[in-house]
Amino acid sequence: MARERYLLNDEESTIHANQIVPTTAKEKRQNWWFHNKVKVIAGVLIGACLFSLIWSVVSKEKPDYSVMMMTGYGVPSELMDDLEDHFEAYAEDLNGDGDVVVAIQHCCFNTTSSSSYQAAELQAAFVRFAADAGAGDSMLFIYDDVSKAYLSQNDMEGFFGPFGDVTEEYVLWSDLESLKSLTIDRYEKEGATRDSVQNVLGELKVSVRTQEGAAFEKEEKITYREETIEFFDRLRNDTPITE
Questions:
Q1: Which domains can be identified in the chain, with CATH numbers?
Q2: pTM of the entire structure?
Q3: How far is CA 152 from CA 103, 135, 145, 157, 158, in A?
Q4: Are 162 and 169 in contact (CB under 8 A)?
Q5: 120 neighbors 82 (Cβ within 8 angstroms)
Q6: For labelling, which of 20, 133, 170, 196 has a CA lying 20 to 30 Å from the CA of 219?
């Protein structure tokens, strides 16, 4: 208590008299980096995320369907490629360009790590999700409980809801008949098997976003959502359009 009294009665300059102040250029750089590294890493990741979104718009063909996958762990690109190939058998050529393209975007919502890099990565993933949601690019979402909880904490409650003849908010991936015919081609080279992949995917949930938000001010987005529900029904009932 005596020490606290001395501090309360002392001048600010006396309280901080023993602070270590960087003097050399190297020490100043190290001090700046220590206090700003999280912001810098977050800025780089978010910038890279936005660049990726812009690049995908200006340089790549527009997919017929965009599907957002959200998990608390990383997903190998080879598995994503196999899933895209599998989904395309159930998809239609919506834009009439002669090709059927399903693009799966992945957001990693790893909320268990406290490292600076992964905290920035989490921020970048939410920016990617928010940009997709704002534009109405994806209507079909595949996610785990960790991702859903994170979105709910960030004012995204009500983003998913009943759709078509589905009265619940989601359908378990393990209830999709099309999962039984999933072919593992690229990813099997990594030592995976179809059964092991089914076990992992089977725990995920599949939802269609509710018809709310500025994106649905465009009639084409309402139509796109309805077409996505039809696409989902083909996945659920295992009725592919092409073999």
A1: 61-237 (3.40.190)
A2: 0.74
A3: 25, 20, 10, 5, 8
A4: yes
A5: no
A6: 170
